[in-house]
Amino acid sequence: MDHSGHGMNMDLPPFTLGRGLEFSADPFFLIGCLVALALYGYGVTRLRGRGDGWPVNRIVFFVIGVLSIALVMCTGLNDYGMVMFSVHMVQHMVISMVSPILLLLGAPVTLALRALPVAGRGRTGPRELLLKLLHSRYMKIISHPVFTIPLFIASLYGLYFTPLFDFLMGSKTGHIAMMVHFLAVGLVFFWPIMGVDPGPHRPGYVMRMLELFAGMPFHAFFGIALMMASQPMVKAYENPPGSLGIDALSDQSAAGGIAWAFSEIPSVLVLIALVFQWYRSEQRTAKRSDRAADRDGDQELKAYNAYLASLQARGQ
Description:
Elements: H1 17-20, H2 27-49, H3 56-73, H4 76-80, H5 85-105, H6 108-115, H7 126-134, H8 137-142, H9 145-160, H10 164-169, H11 172-194, H12 205-228, H13 248-262, H14 265-296, H15 299-315
């Protein structure tokens, strides 16, 4: 393939799923994925080595989350995404709305807190630094919906409808930075809503659902805007290579359809996770109440019965 000065593959043949899924690794994301899997595996091994358990479902979620990043960044999809708006939109939606959900369900921060050793008295180790970060004012700000929802929306409209997108697409470094940004935005948006890990902002389940639905419609509106446009809206994709055999406006319309469709997929995934977490939370609360009743001989129930008896006595 002939690589232009911008690192873009200009002589790609027409897109097919087979060509899109061929291995074509971006070194930055390949190394990042391997390191993430290695660190997570080390944490699980360390826990199990000392006799502690770690849920298998969390391992599965995290591994699939990492693999979803590799799928869009270490295959031909990344090459085609440089010259086809529709393929780029698949990358964007997966890395910002699917991968973060799966990674968060893997609870990597909780794993790190359990696996990292506690530093000695008066000393600060990795575990203490992580706890300090979790309880910092910075983390309270970036995990608050007043920050996360506008950031989530601005990552669409403020990027694609301004010259910033073309600037970032003009270099390999800019493209990597943009994809890292998409992943980071997805993580901070979904973390307070359905993340398993501890965090400074963790509202009730109803508020979490409201936070979710506050951001999702803007993805749908963005997709519809692309689908209805009568001319290419992003300069980087207005002149696709002739070897692809595609029309820029049709490709943009397909990109809009992908953005619109993906606004529904994460909503369903997160709602399922939230309902399950809510159910588990209620189960734990019920078990705690039962244990407390067993310890104190159910004093609360006795007091309530005594209260009812006093009311009945007064009525007579």
